[in-house]
Amino acid sequence: MSFSACVLTLYPEMFPGALGLSLAGRALEAGTWSLEAIQIRDFATDRHRTVDDTPAGGGAGMVMRADVLAKAIDHASPEGDLRPRLLMSPRGKPLTQRRVRELAAGPGAVILCGRFEGVDQRVIDARGLEEVSIGDFILSGGEPAALVLLDAVVRLLPGVMGNAVSGEEESFENRLLEHPHYTRPQEFEGREIPVVLISGNHKKIAAWRRAESEALTRARRPDLLENGKTNND
């Protein structure tokens, strides 16, 4: 069974976007995964296809309506659909490599892309939406975040990466940032490839890479080392 992604958005033309290229694009063409982008406005009931309204209690901006979103979600994810329902939101739980792997091992995902000031809380509660964040910053909408999430998931689907080991030796996979990489030429602007990497001694190479990963993690992401936990956990 292939991974089935459904995105609810006001801008379906943003999909597949970059996901139609490279590894993800080839996997999409091969049927390893599927993508459906649904226009939320199609579920509005007025002639203006209104999907938002002023916030209760006052304030700036507009809020996406619960009734319109509920209809869109119910259409995309009817009763019995086992795919998790995700809402891309800056207040959501940070996306981790562990969650990415969980999603890649499942049947797919239904992803709601918010816009404006946010989404009516009642539809989040009523439809069991899992709020997911890709970082501590604000985007103009959830579409770029959905593309990021799907890219992270699709590359882990069986057969997408040419070398399965590639997905096991990356940043966050082993509670460490990834070690530096080098390739030909041997010398570049006076900088040489570390001698150990061309020694042919695989035990020493592994030890060097581990040491470099630990040093980089201590310098750049010490939080990953605290109490032996990382963003994978």
From TrEMBL:
TM spans (from-to): none
Pfam families found in the cross-reference section: tRNA_m1G_MT
This protein's UniProt keywords: Cytoplasm, Methyltransferase, S-adenosyl-L-methionine, Transferase, tRNA processing
Gene Ontology molecular functions: tRNA (guanine(37)-N1)-methyltransferase activity
Subcellular location: Cytoplasm
GO biological process: methylation
Domain tRNA methyltransferase TRMD/TRM10-type residue range list: 6-226
Enzymatic class: transferase
Reaction equations catalysed: guanosine(37) in tRNA + S-adenosyl-L-methionine = N(1)-methylguanosine(37) in tRNA + S-adenosyl-L-homocysteine + H(+)
Main location: cytoplasm
Residues spanning the signal sequence: none
Keyword S-adenosyl-L-methionine: yes
InterPro entries according to UniProt: Alpha/beta_knot_MTases, tRNA_m1G_MeTrfase_C_sf, tRNA_m1G_MeTrfase_TrmD, tRNA_m1G_MTases_N, tRNA_MeTrfase_TRMD/TRM10
Record SUPFAM superfamilies: alpha/beta knot (SSF75217)
Family: Belongs to the RNA methyltransferase TrmD family.
UniProt-recorded name of the protein: tRNA (guanine-N(1)-)-methyltransferase
Species the sequence originates in: Mesorhizobium cantuariense
Gene assigned in the entry: trmD
